[in-house]
């Protein structure tokens, strides 16, 4: 087939491409589909279930059949619609969903077995034998399922995201969209015009109509020139608005580089979030086909698509074509193709009163009842008044009317409304606040009506924003009324396809009806109608009409499915906008990160933080060896650990004490200046929320610390309390977590070490006792804060300096404390030290435990009220006897495994006899075995008892002795030393 | 004067300045920050002679500036005084306010365009969900940038500041650098 005349392709530029390894040539302006058609390739794919040979059906993003694997290697992308793949030199495409060649797909055997694959077959089969499911059926189905294949290689491209704001978003740059954008942009409004195509014009490119007696694209070209001069208008080509979300936000994908062989250094696609005050939905309409027996032969396509290929891409799928129509629109295709020299074998019109609009054979009151040509259409059966004759044609255009593209108007669950006059579903007005449809998307059938409605809708939308817009002078356009009959399928014995992509036939819908799967939602799930990548764009309404016919109801009574985002598929890489690897999410580095890295620390992710987990030394073969050394060094000398990650909240104001009294379960207003108190916060429901310390630097100034994990939530909670619960209190809050580097200095030599860095500050036990705090200076005048608190059970301090000095302070303390055994330790040793000390942490404060369970019941003050205090005294919580206990294996060589459940020795191990669980466990170099903490029923009275820890996952049954939670210095003498 | 050496926000070895087309991005290590909040009944002060701005605004005086961070709350910027205890000085002058040192809580990225406001607007479009058209000189807001909380200040038509958490400096730099570099790489 040679090219037809005209078209919007650049014939001076020849682009080479391959399909299934065979080389072809196309032109700039082609899509892969148009270029294949121009090279006489009608067979482009295989269907999903029956592996039927399929050709292109549409000319846009609604394409259900011509799906290919585009590009090669790591850039291979499955399920790409050939109809929207812009041709470039060197393009590589392969057909998919086949075993063997496209012409001889071995899986076409499925077509012969189709009686077994009727609608809902997978709900009815594979039930027995039961053992076959996992071993045979599921693997078999998984192998057969899906369309294209993934390369399984990392995506080499980069992706981007961005945010745009506008007064008016115009979705679609056809006649209505262009008129809307022109109206709004001339009024000075901030306008975004987005279209999925690479050229502006929409359906104007596919038609032969003139505007003001000139080619329609002349008008589009004049508009593009004007648009370029308007700084308030942003034209976004190759941009699909795929979803309408809350608050006027629309998701859009801009295919920045998909029209290039490789993106080079540029991004491939950009995900835009567009915030629009008002939106015009000018997304056009999608043509319906008419199911008849074997209507899926390659070469049978939508008549509007056939017209688009002829007018825009100067190509016809065959030299002789026929048209099957139920309205006037099909005749237009015949006229346009005939004008370009294509032979029209006939127009088969279902309407008995149809009239020919030109010189071509007309079969009025007839239908196409069958088609032949397995790999490409050869003949069609035309049936009129019970008589069937065959026509030899290479292609058939089918015109069953147009469905407005209402999808985005449904994204807020708006249900499209059936309009009898338009024979179509129209968008529900107001379904998406601020969005109004115009043009074909609103059921406006003619170009003149589309232009006028685009301008009028834009004007009205701007008026709501207080922007006055004048209606522009619009070009004179065709305005002939279009008659459309309601004709939904050709009855007959053969299989008539409704949903090409999912292989759903009229028979399947009939079966669903017989099996009482009649509501639209059931129909969809029973038959898989509309579930594939095209989301039923060419199928759903026809299927509804068929179901309506079967039930004897109207289409309006039958209902409709609604649509969810995305309008067309969006790559996960685009949604993730390229954040992979180290930059998958933000990383917070502690102030001593650089120093720790230089020491060879192994880091661990703790939320967003990267924390030093341990500091291996030469000769240490396992992490346990390192951690044991760090723990023992701390207990014997002095250990240093960066604890900056703990949340810090600065609390000031005359009522700061009262505020904290209400937030903490225990009293804080009574805390003396210069002292620190351990604090416990409860949730409203009485369960433990978070713990930490509260230091009082002045009468009206406290510093609250939180756990690392809860730093953000606790600060938010405190702000909620301040702003919403007690706005009358004079309290000011601000987070200082990042502002101060905080280092724990723990161990018997902690004081000696600190004495070497503080500027003349008295650290004696008398002057600075356990739980004291103070502001001071260190290292020659650097402002600092010192807290004498311990997480390890040792004599310990936490020293804070402005964050930028944290790294240097850590290095300095390690350096000057070398003779004292100064040793850095990481989060692993930190965990061991706290378990040995019996300190609750995140494992114990998991949102399901109470103060009483944690052994802190008495901390919930009865002398004052506080959040959660009353609820913590609920009968159910008071009756709880599980408390935190220490656990030690009877045989020291045995493990203690966190997560294990606790049972009385010899008791049956089931839910009813479950007595608790192990929350934390570690190897304790101090004890010489593994140890654990856990909640145990009646634990307080069971000291010394041997119980069983069951870990069914590893088939462990370990005998544990119940011991106090303090494995080290139970009297607390070291803390106060 | 302490003998400890401060660590730059991006680490000692990292670059702290970048030229990307019309944009220059640099880390401002010298600016001191302090949170200032009114206590009950206090009148807004004029720290260092500066009239404190209203909601969504930033104002600048002689080597001092401030942006609104909440009702009765501001962040004070004192240029070139990061090494000083600016918070203490402010508290001494304004005892009826709560003042908190914030210098090391944040990292300030200063972005300057040599081609007017357009490159700044294009950068904003890629980084933050703020309508650049309504965010002219003197505007300040708190918003999200790649899941990180930041303050953004339009100091002038061609100058933008992004102030984010210091512990996230590396991730912020990566995000800003990537967006700035991509401005040069958009295909025709």
From TrEMBL, chain A:
Q: Where is the SoxA A3 domain?
A: 493-576
Keywords tagged on the record: Oxidoreductase
One Pfam family name is GCV_T
Q: Which residues form the GCVT N-terminal domain?
A: 593-864
Q: Which InterPro entries match?
A: 2Fe-2S-bd_N, FAD/NAD-bd_sf, GcvT/YgfZ/DmdA, GcvT/YgfZ_C, GcvT_C, GCVT_N, Sarcosine_oxidase_asu, SoxA_A3
Give the matching Gene3D superfamilies.
2Fe-2S iron-sulphur cluster binding domain, sarcosine oxidase, alpha subunit, N-terminal domain, FAD/NAD(P)-binding domain, Probable tRNA modification gtpase trme, domain 1
Aminomethyltransferase C-terminal domain residues: 882-969
Report the superkingdom from the record. Answer: Bacteria
In alphabetical order, the GO MF annotations are:
sarcosine oxidase activity
Q: Which GO terms describe its biological process?
A: tetrahydrofolate metabolic process
Family, according to the entry, reads as follows: Belongs to the GcvT family.
Sorted alphabetically, which PANTHER family does this protein's record hold? AMINOMETHYLTRANSFERASE, AMINOMETHYLTRANSFERASE, MITOCHONDRIAL
This chain belongs to the protein called Sarcosine oxidase subunit alpha family protein
UniProtKB/TrEMBL annotation, chain B:
User: Superkingdom of the source?
Assistant: Bacteria
Q: Which InterPro entries match?
A: TrmE/GcvT-like
Q: What is this protein called?
A: Sarcosine oxidase subunit gamma
């Amino acid at each position: 087939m040679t090219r037809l005349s005209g078209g919007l392709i650049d014939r001076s530029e020849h682009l080479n491409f391959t399909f299934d390894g065979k080389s072809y040539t196309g032109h700039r302006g082609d899509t892969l589909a148009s270029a294949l058609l121009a090279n006489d390739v009608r067979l482009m794919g295989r269907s999903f279930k029956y592996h039927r040979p399929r050709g292109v059906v549409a000319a846009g993003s609604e394409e259900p059949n011509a799906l290919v694997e585009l590009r090669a290697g790591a850039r291979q992308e499955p399920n790409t619609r050939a109809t929207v793949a812009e041709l470039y030199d060197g393009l590589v495409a392969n057909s998919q969903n086949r075993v063997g060649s496209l012409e001889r797909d071995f899986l076409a055997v499925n077509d012969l077995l189709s009686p077994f694959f009727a609608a809902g077959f997978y709900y009815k089969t594979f039930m027995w034998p039961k053992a076959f499911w996992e071993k045979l059926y599921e693997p078999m189905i998984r192998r057969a399922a899906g369309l294209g294949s993934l390369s399984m290689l990392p995506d080499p491209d980069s992706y981007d995201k961005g945010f745009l704001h506008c007064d008016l978003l115009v979705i679609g740059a056809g006649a209505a969209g262009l008129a809307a954008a022109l109206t709004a942009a001339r009024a000075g409004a901030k306008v975004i015009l987005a279209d999925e195509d690479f050229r502006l014009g929409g359906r104007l490119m596919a038609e032969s109509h003139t505007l003001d007696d000139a080619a329609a694209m002349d008008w589009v070209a004049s508009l593009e020139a004007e648009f370029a001069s308007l700084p308030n208008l942003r034209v976004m080509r190759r941009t699909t608005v795929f979803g309408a979300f809350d608050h006027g936000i629309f998701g859009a994908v801009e295919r920045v580089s998909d029209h290039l062989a490789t993106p080079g250094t540029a991004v491939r696609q950009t995900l835009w979030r567009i915030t629009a005050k008002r939106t015009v939905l000018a997304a056009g309409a999608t043509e319906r086909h008419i199911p008849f027996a074997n209507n899926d032969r390659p070469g049978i396509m939508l008549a509007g698509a056939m017209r688009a290929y002829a007018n825009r891409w100067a190509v016809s799928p065959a030299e002789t074509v026929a048209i099957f129509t139920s309205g006037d629109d099909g005749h237009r295709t015949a006229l346009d193709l005939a004008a370009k020299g294509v032979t029209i074998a006939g127009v088969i019109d279902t309407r008995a009163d149809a009239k020919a609009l030109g010189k071509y054979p007309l079969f009025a009151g007839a239908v196409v009842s069958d088609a032949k040509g397995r790999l490409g259409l050869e003949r069609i059966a035309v049936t009129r008044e019970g008589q069937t004759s065959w026509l030899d044609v290479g292609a058939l255009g089918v015109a069953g009317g147009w469905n407005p593209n209402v999808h985005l108007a449904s994204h807020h669950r708006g249900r499209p409304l059936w309009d009898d006059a338009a024979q179509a579903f129209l968008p529900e007005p107001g379904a998406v606040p601020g969005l109004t449809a115009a043009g074909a998307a609103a059921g406006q059938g003619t170009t003149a009506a589309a232009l006028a409605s685009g301008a009028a809708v834009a004007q009205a939308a701007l008026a709501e924003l207080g922007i006055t817009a004048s209606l522009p002078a619009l070009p004179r356009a065709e305005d002939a009324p279009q008659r459309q009959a309601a004709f939904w399928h050709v009855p007959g014995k053969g299989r008539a396809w409704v949903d090409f992509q999912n292989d759903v036939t009229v028979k399947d819908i009939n079966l669903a009806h017989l099996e009482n799967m009649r509501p639209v939602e059931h129909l969809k799930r029973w038959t898989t109608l509309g579930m594939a990548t095209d989301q039923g764009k060419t199928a759903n309404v026809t299927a509804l009409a068929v179901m309506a016919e079967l039930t004897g109801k109207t289409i309006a009574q039958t209902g409709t499915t609604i649509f969810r985002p995305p309008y067309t598929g969006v790559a996960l890489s685009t949604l993730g906008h390229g954040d992979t690897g180290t930059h998958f999410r933000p990383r917070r580095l502690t102030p001593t990160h650089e120093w720790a890295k230089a020491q060879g620390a192994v880091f661990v992710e703790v939320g967003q933080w990267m924390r030093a987990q341990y500091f291996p030394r030469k000769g240490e073969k396992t992490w346990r060896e390192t951690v044991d050394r760090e723990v023992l060094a701390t207990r014997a000398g002095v250990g240093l650990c960066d604890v900056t990650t703990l949340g810090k909240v600065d609390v000031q104001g005359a009522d700061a004490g009262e505020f904290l009294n209400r937030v903490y379960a225990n009293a804080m207003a009574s805390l003396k200046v210069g002292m620190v108190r351990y604090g416990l916060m409860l949730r409203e429901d009485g369960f433990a929320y978070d713990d930490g310390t509260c230091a009082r630097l002045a009468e009206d100034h406290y510093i609250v610390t939180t756990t690392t994990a809860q730093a953000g939530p606790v600060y938010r909670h405190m702000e909620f309390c301040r702003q919403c619960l007690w706005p009358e209190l004079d309290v000011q809050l601000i987070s200082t977590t990042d502002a101060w580097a905080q280092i724990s200095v723990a161990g018997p030599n902690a004081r000696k070490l600190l004495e070497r860095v503080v500027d003349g500050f008295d650290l004696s036990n008398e002057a600075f006792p356990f739980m004291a705090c103070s502001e001071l200076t260190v290292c020659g005048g650097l402002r600092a804060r010192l807290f004498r608190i311990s997480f390890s059970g040792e004599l310990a301090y936490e020293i804070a300096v402005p964050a930028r000095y944290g790294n240097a302070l850590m290095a300095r303390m390690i350096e000057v404390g070398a003779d004292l055994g100064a040793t850095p330790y990481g989060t692993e040793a930190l965990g061991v030290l706290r378990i040995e000390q019996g300190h609750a942490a995140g494992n114990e404060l998991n949102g399901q435990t109470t103060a009483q369970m944690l052994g802190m019941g008495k901390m919930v003050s009865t002398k004052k009220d506080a959040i959660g205090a009353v609820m913590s005294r609920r009968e159910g919580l008071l009756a709880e006897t599980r408390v935190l206990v220490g656990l030690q294996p009877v045989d020291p060589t045995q493990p203690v495994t966190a997560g294990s459940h606790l049972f009385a020795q010899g008791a049956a191990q089931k839910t009813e006899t479950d007595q608790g669980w192990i929350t934390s466990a570690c190897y304790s170099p101090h004890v010489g075995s593994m140890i654990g903490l856990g909640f145990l029923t009646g634990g307080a009275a069971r000291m010394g008892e041997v119980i069983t820890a069951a870990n069914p996952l590893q088939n462990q049954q370990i005998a544990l002795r119940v011991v106090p939670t303090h494995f080290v210095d139970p009297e607390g003498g070291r803390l106060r030393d | 004067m302490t003998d400890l050496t401060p660590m730059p926000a991006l680490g000692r070895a990292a670059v702290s300045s970048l030229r990307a087309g019309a944009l220059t991005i640099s880390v401002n290590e010298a600016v001191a920050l302090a949170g200032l909040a009114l206590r009950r009944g206090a009148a807004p002060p004029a720290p260092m002679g500066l009239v404190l701005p209203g909601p969504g605004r930033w104002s600048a005086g002689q080597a001092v500036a401030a942006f609104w961070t909440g009702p009765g709350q501001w962040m004070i910027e004192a240029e070139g005084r990061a090494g000083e205890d600016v918070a203490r000085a402010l508290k001494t002058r304004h005892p009826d306010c709560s003042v908190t040192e914030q210098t090391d809580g944040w990292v300030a990225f200063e972005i300057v365009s040599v081609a007017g406001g357009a490159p700044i607007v294009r950068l904003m479009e890629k980084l933050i969900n703020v309508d650049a058209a309504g965010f002219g000189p003197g505007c300040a807001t708190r918003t999200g940038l790649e899941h990180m909380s930041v303050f953004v200040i339009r100091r002038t038509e061609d100058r933008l500041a992004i102030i984010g958490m210091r512990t996230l400096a590396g991730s912020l730099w990566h995000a800003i650098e990537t967006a700035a570099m991509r401005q040069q790489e958009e295909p025709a």
